[in-house]
Amino acid sequence: xxxxxAYKNLYHPNQxxxxxxxxxxxxxxxxxxxxxxxxxxxxxxxxxxxxxxxxLQGFLxxxxxxxxxxxxxxxxxxxQLEQEFDKKSRLGFIIYPSPCVSTSVVxxxxxxxxxxxxxxxxxxxxxxxxxxxxxxxQRKLNIERPSYNNLNRxxxxxxxxxxxxxxFDGALNVDLTEFQTNLxxxxxxxxxxxxxxxxxxxxxxxxxGMSVAQITAECFEPSNxxxxxNPRTGKYMACCM
Length: 241
What we know:
single chain, mainly alpha, 3 strands, about 45% helix, Tubulin/FtsZ_GTPase_sf, Tubulin alpha chain
């Protein structure tokens, strides 16, 4: 899909790395065996891109915690980036597995192992999970059987909004380091959950309007969160809107 799909021209072909084997949904294969075979090539591409930047702020990483590559190889990559670019920010957008939408019985193990690595090698990790995105697509967007395209488009819209302050003028989060400053109260507690509003289908968007107060209230509704949890049972230590 990335190489031949509708958005193939977004990526330079020299920056696409593939391998003859996959990680087979196994953290250990992604981190210790298959991952070791391509980590140096991957880092070389990072170095070339970094050298071509006039003012590198940091890295944005998108990966899942359920698969072997997203968990194992990304953990290995983050460790290497932390060593080579220790002064640069590393922000992650991570997709957690869900028992209701599961493709492998080992997803929980991969997620636990990858989370441990993320504690030390990522400055701020925005959490999402498959069940929450499926639920939003079905309930808010009236998509009976959401496809991966539907899920990815929803996630990309959320990510675009989170990073909008990097591309447009604003008072908050004008560079990558400010995400950490504004959203991370303690170094190890760097897993903010994300909420998006308004979310409505094309059909409703034409005749349903929402006030600023309604949009703000929806941002604190568990049904609009990209993670299935209820923050009302705890306390907000940091928040950006």
